[in-house]
Write a structure and sequence with these properties.
Blueprint: E1 3-4, E2 7-8, H1 16-31, H2 34-47, H3 51-76, H4 80-87, H5 91-122, H6 126-141, H7 146-172, H8 176-184, H9 191-202, H10 206-216, H11 225-255, H12 265-303, H13 310-314, H14 316-334, H15 338-363, H16 376-399
Antiparallel strand pairs: 1-2
Amino acid sequence: MKRFNNKVLAYKPSNTRSAIIGAAFLMATSAIGPGFLTQTTVFTNKLGAAFAFVIVVTILIDIAVQLNIWRMISMSNLRAQDLANKVFPGLGYVLAGMIVFGAVAFNTGNVAGAGLGVQVCTGLPTPIGAAVSALVAIIIFWQKDTGHAMDVFTKYMGLLMIVLTCYVAWVAQPPMVSVVKQIFWPHTTSTIAIVTIVGGTVGGYISFAGAHRLLEAGIAGASQLNKVNKGAISGIVLTGIMRFVLFLAVLGVVMQGKNLDAANPAAAVFKLSAGQLGYFFFGMVMWAASITSVIGASFTAISFIKTFHPAIEAQQKIWVTGFILLSTGIFEWIGQPVNVLVWAGTVNGFILPLALFIILIAALQHRLTPKYKHAPWLQVAGWLVVVALLWLALATLRRH
């Protein structure tokens, strides 16, 4: 039985390739949740074709963020909280607390989205759909080879989301010439859109999901650098493809002069574009996006605390189950409106600079990665992202 950091591995991949693909899809599907669908729809409706520029900017930022985080975690052979504690004793506990708190908030929205997806597809009440979805997630975590089960499930759910959304985008017939022009010369832009989209894609727990999955698979050290790079970039590319396809679908509907339902704008896009079939597809996409995000949030949240006490490491399946039940209970009690999903991404955009700051400081301490030297261009790109996100965050606060 393999061991990692002197602890028995709980998640064993069938092979290295499977683990890398699984890590990429875990990161991507963690980002593609109900908030992702809502945020993309809301900002496309607001910015029109100019949102294409925002997507491209955020993809570039996301790549810089993910390469910095994935490389340092994998090369140091330490999870983010343990790496933070090496930088400054106690800092890892602060980071873990922030990540877990944010994950609970996001997971409440994820459970809500899963319930909504079930309701759209079957007609069952949303609370029942949420409970059934939570049970599905718990069953996956209780499989003998949990890592492989997560890899397979998130991969096929991710592909399903992209295929169904591609169909809706094709039917919607967006103005592609205008989209291409706006990528390079947007007629308008939005700082809050950039902060929110970055926060929703690589903010909070999402930026660490794939990297921690690689550690669970034993993929760490300088010899694995190319594989780590491939996994990080693949995760962002997958997320970017889904974001762009959904943007095209929304844009096609908006450009036809159709009004979106403010209570559920993403559902309106699918229905207005492809009728009742499109609405059914929305339910499937919403459920797939939500249930994979439940899995990603739950896995990552517990990975942030399990190294702090042996009991958590030994009983992590029970802790994951409790985390899912907690999120489900919160949803059943208070629900999850659209505005909270949008602002949850914005809050993660504020947390991200701190997390990236810790990673960049760690990269300056060669003792943490004696066989690896962090690339200077990644350091520069990382610090530029930290400064840019802080500036955008302050600009957003001034506007609100």
